[in-house]
Design a protein that fits this description.
- With 532 residues, this protein is mainly α.
- The chain contains 21 helices and seven strands.
- Strands 4-3-5-7-6 form a five-stranded mixed sheet. The chain has a two-stranded antiparallel sheet with strand order 1-2.
- Helix 5 packs across helix 6 and helix 14 runs antiparallel to helix 15.
- The chain is globular.
Length: 532
C-alpha cells in the first residue's frame, strides 16, 4: 500500500509540474485575472451567499408544492414511478408479503425482489388514514423533516449555516428534484435519512478506532438504508471500499457489513440466490440509460462527474504536503475511480452497478462533493482553488435553477388525457383481464394507467408497472404481443390474447388493423377500449 500511494503522489506531482511549466507571463496574467475576479466575488460575497440560500430554499419550497398535488388526485400525469409503489402497497395490504399474485403479468411476486421498508410504512399509515395518497404525502414530508434534523443536529459540520446549506443542496440539486419530486421515488427519499448520516460517520471514522458507537450506528444505518432501497448500498459501496482500504480494523468492519446484510436476509437473499426464471433487474434498456449522445440528461452526467473529479483533485493539491491527510485520499480513491467509470460510461459494463438509476449516482456524487467542500473548507484555500470552487458552485446553482424552469407545472387539475383514462375505467371491473397498447406518441405512461385501474377497479392485467418479480416468460410474451399488434400480425396477436384469457384491450394512441375485428366499447380522444 505505501508503494502504491507513493507512486500515486509522484504521478500527480509530475502532472502538476508539467502544468506549471507553462510560460510564466501567461500564468501571471491568469493569476491577475483570478485576483480581480476574487476581489469582485469578495465585494458581492454576502449577496451571493444570500442568493444561494434563497434560490435553493425556493426550489425546496417548490418541491413541497409538487408534493401537495398528492392531496388532490391520483398522479396519472406525474409522479409516474410512485404509481407503481402505490399499487404494490395495495397488493401488500390485500395479499400479504412474498405473495405470488395474478393481478399483474399473469403472475407476479409483490415484494419478494424489492426493498420493503417504504411499503410496510405506507400500508401502516394507510391503515390509519385509509388513503394511500395522503399516506405517501405524509411519509415524504416526514422523510424531509427527519433528513433536516439529522443534518442540522449533527456536529459533522462546524457551523449550522453549513448544515442548512447541505440540507438544501441534498434536495435542491437537479437529480434530487427530478428523482424525488417528479418521478416520485419515495423509497429512495426514505433511504436518504439513513444514507446521509452513514456518509457522515464514514468520513468521521475512516482513520479512527471503531468504537461501540460506530458499530451500532453503522449496522443500523446500513441495514435500514438497504431495506429502504437496495441501490443505497450500491451507491455507497465505493466509500465502503475506501473505508476498508484505509481503516486498520478491516476484519471488524467486514463483520459489521456482513451483519447489516444479514439483517436484510429475509428479502435480500433472493438477489443473491438468483431465480433464473424471474426478472431481478428491470428489463428493457439499462437503468443507467447513458449513451454518448449529448442530450440534456447526458450533459448533466458529464457535469456532475467532472465536478466531483475536480473537487478530489483540488483536495489533493491542497493537502498533498499534509501527511495526516494521506489516508483521506486513499479513502476517496475507490469513489474517484468510480467517478471515472461514470464519466466514461464504463459503468454500463459493470454488473449490479449498471442496474442502478443514474439519478441516484448523480445525487450521491453531489453530496460527497459538497461534504468535501464544506467539511474541509476548500472555499478558504488558495486564491485559484477558491475561485475554482466558486465557479463549480455557480454551475451547480445553475443546474438547480434549470430544474425549476423545466419542471414548473403547478396545474392541480387532471389533463384531458388523464380524464380520458378515468372515464374509460367506468367500463372495467375486477372480472376483466386487460392488455394495454401504449403508443410512444400517447404522452401517457401505460404503467400508471395499469396502477390506477388496479387500485380503483382491481382490474387484472397481463402487463404491469415495474417488472422486477415477473416471470421472464411473461415478459417475452408481452414483447411478442406488442410486436404482433404493431406489425399487424393479427393471427398471432389473437392467439396470444386467447393464451392469457385477455378480454379487454386498451389502445393509448396506437392504431392497428388487428383491432378492427374487436368490438369498440368506447373512445375518449385517441384512447380506445375494445372487447375481445
Amino acid at each position: 500500500m505505501p508503494v502504491f500511494s507513493s507512486f500515486l503522489e509522484t504521478f500527480l506531482n509530475t502532472i502538476l509540474i508539467v502544468i506549471f511549466k507553462l510560460k510564466a507571463k501567461y500564468y501571471v496574467n491568469f493569476l491577475k485575472k483570478i485576483n480581480n475576479l476574487e476581489s469582485l466575488i469578495s465585494k458581492y460575497n454576502k449577496i451571493y451567499v444570500a442568493a444561494t440560500y434563497g434560490i435553493l430554499s425556493l426550489i425546496v419550497l417548490h418541491s413541497f408544492v409538487m408534493l401537495s398535488k398528492l392531496l388532490f388526485k391520483f398522479p396519472i400525469d406525474y409522479f409516474t414511478d410512485l404509481t407503481s409503489y402505490l399499487a404494490r402497497a395495495d397488493f401488500l395490504a390485500r395479499y400479504g408479503y412474498f405473495t405470488y399474485i395474478i393481478d399483474w403479468y399473469s403472475g407476479y411476486y409483490v415484494l419478494k425482489y424489492y426493498s420493503p421498508l417504504w411499503f410496510f410504512i405506507e400500508v401502516w399509515f394507510n391503515a390509519l388514514f385509509n388513503n394511500y395518497l395522503l399516506s405517501a404525502f405524509i411519509i415524504a414530508i416526514l422523510s424531509i423533516i427527519i433528513l433536516f434534523l439529522v443534518i442540522y443536529k449533527s456536529s459533522f459540520f462546524n457551523t449550522k449555516s453549513k448544515a442548512i446549506l447541505f440540507f438544501l443542496i441534498s434536495l435542491a440539486n437537479f437529480g434530487s428534484f427530478r428523482y424525488f419530486f417528479m418521478l416520485g421515488r419515495f423509497p429512495v427519499l426514505l433511504s436518504f435519512i439513513f444514507l446521509v448520516p452513514l456518509i457522515f460517520i464514514l468520513f468521521i471514522y475512516y482513520d479512527k478506532k471503531l468504537d461501540w458507537r460506530f458499530s451500532i450506528s453503522y449496522v443500523l444505518l446500513t441495514s435500514f438504508a438497504t431495506m429502504s432501497h437496495i441501490s443505497a448500498f450500491v451507491v455507497v459501496s465505493p466509500l465502503l471500499a475506501g473505508f476498508f482500504l484505509v481503516n486498520k480494523q478491516r476484519i471488524k468492519f467486514a463483520f459489521l457489513t456482513i451483519l447489516s446484510i444479514a439483517v436484510n436476509w429475509f428479502w435480500i437473499k433472493d438477489f443473491i440466490i438468483l431465480d433464473k426464471n424471474v426478472m431481478i433487474a428491470v428489463s428493457g434498456d439499462t437503468a443507467l440509460g447513458l449513451t454518448l449522445s449529448f442530450t440534456i440528461a447526458n450533459i448533466r452526467h458529464y457535469i456532475v462527474s467532472l465536478f466531483f473529479i475536480l473537487i478530489l483533485l483540488i483536495l489533493y493539491f491542497s493537502y498533498r504536503k499534509d501527511k495526516k491527510k494521506k489516508n483521506l485520499f486513499l479513502f476517496l480513491l475507490p469513489i474517484f475511480g468510480f467517478s471515472i467509470f461514470y464519466l466514461t460510461k464504463l459503468l454500463l459494463y459493470v454488473p449490479i452497478f449498471n442496474n442502478v438509476y443514474n439519478d441516484y449516482y448523480e445525487i450521491v456524487l453531489w453530496l460527497v462533493a459538497f461534504v468535501l467542500i464544506l467539511k474541509y473548507d476548500l472555499l478558504n484555500k488558495r486564491r485559484i482553488l477558491k475561485f475554482t470552487i466558486f465557479a463549480l458552485s455557480v454551475l451547480f446553482l445553475c443546474g438547480a435553477i434549470y430544474s425549476i424552469i423545466v419542471y414548473n407545472d403547478y396545474n392541480f387539475k387532471y389533463s384531458e388525457k388523464a380524464k380520458n383514462v378515468i372515464t374509460l375505467s367506468n367500463y372495467l371491473s375486477d372480472k376483466d383481464v386487460l392488455f394495454i397498447y401504449n403508443s410512444p406518441k400517447s404522452g401517457t405512461v401505460g404503467g400508471t394507467v395499469v396502477s390506477y385501474y388496479n387500485m380503483e377497479k382491481h382490474v387484472k392485467s397481463v402487463d404491469g408497472w415495474f417488472d422486477q418479480g415477473a416471470l421472464k416468460q411473461q415478459i417475452d410474451y408481452l414483447r411478442s404481443l406488442r410486436s404482433s399488434m404493431k406489425n399487424e400480425q393479427c393471427d398471432t396477436f389473437n392467439n396470444l390474447l386467447l393464451q392469457e384469457n385477455v378480454n379487454k384491450v386498451l389502445s393509448l394512441g396506437g392504431k392497428s388493423s388487428c383491432l378492427n375485428s374487436k368490438r369498440l366499447i368506447s373512445c375518449k380522444g385517441d384512447f380506445c377500449l375494445y372487447e375481445v
